Amino acid sequence: MAQQEMVKREESTPVSREETRSTSKVMVPAVDIFESDDALTLVADMPGVAKEGLDINLEKGVLTLSGEVALESHGKPLQREFSSANYYRQFKLSEHIDAEKAAAELTSGVLTLTIPKAESAKPRRIEIRH
């Protein structure tokens, strides 16, 4: 199944202040999506997000990624040029996935999410009989 069919479109839902928790800025993480015969693999760049600040939710066919960046305090700030922002992104996925078997890994600010395809969506080879 082509990627256009498995990941139909990106949602453009506005983010409320409550969803961003500690900051008022929200960044859209850069995402690559790969499709194999067996699964979709999503790779998202979310630097500064720890495992505890990451939320991955799949509900009613909408995949939501949100990550909270926690800044370290090194004392009283004298000058600030860097500000953090939380991450938020949504995708509408095909119903031909097996969300129960999804697996996520976060390493050095890079999220890798693997969502297997449902058996009905996997390609099948049909044998020819005599």
Written as H for each helix and E for each strand, in order along the chain, the element string is: HEHEEEEEEEE
Kindly estimate the percentage of residues that lie in beta strands according to DSSP. Answer: 35-45%
Mean pLDDT: 81
What spatial form do the alpha-carbon principal axes imply? elongated
Radius of gyration: 18 Å
Tally of individual domains: 1
Judged by helices, strands and strand pairing, the structural class is mainly beta
Report the helical percentage: under 10%
**What is the count of DSSP helices, taking H or I runs of 4+ residues?**
2
Task: Please provide a brief summary of the model.
The chain contains two helices and nine strands, in the order αβαββββββββ. With 130 residues, it is mainly beta.
Sequence-ordered SSE layout with sheet pairings:
Elements: H1 3-6, E1 7-10, H2 17-20, E2 26-27, E3 30-35, E4 39-45, E5 49-59, E6 62-69, E7 86-93, E8 103-107, E9 110-116
Parallel strand pairs: 2-7
Antiparallel strand pairs: 1-7, 3-4, 4-9, 5-6, 6-7, 8-9
Write up this protein.
The protein is mainly β. It is 6% helix and 45% strand. The protein has one domain: Immunoglobulin-like. Strands 1, 2, 5, 6 and 7 form a five-stranded mixed sheet that branches. A four-stranded antiparallel sheet has the order 3-4-9-8, with no helix packed on it. Strand 3 and strand 4 form a beta hairpin.
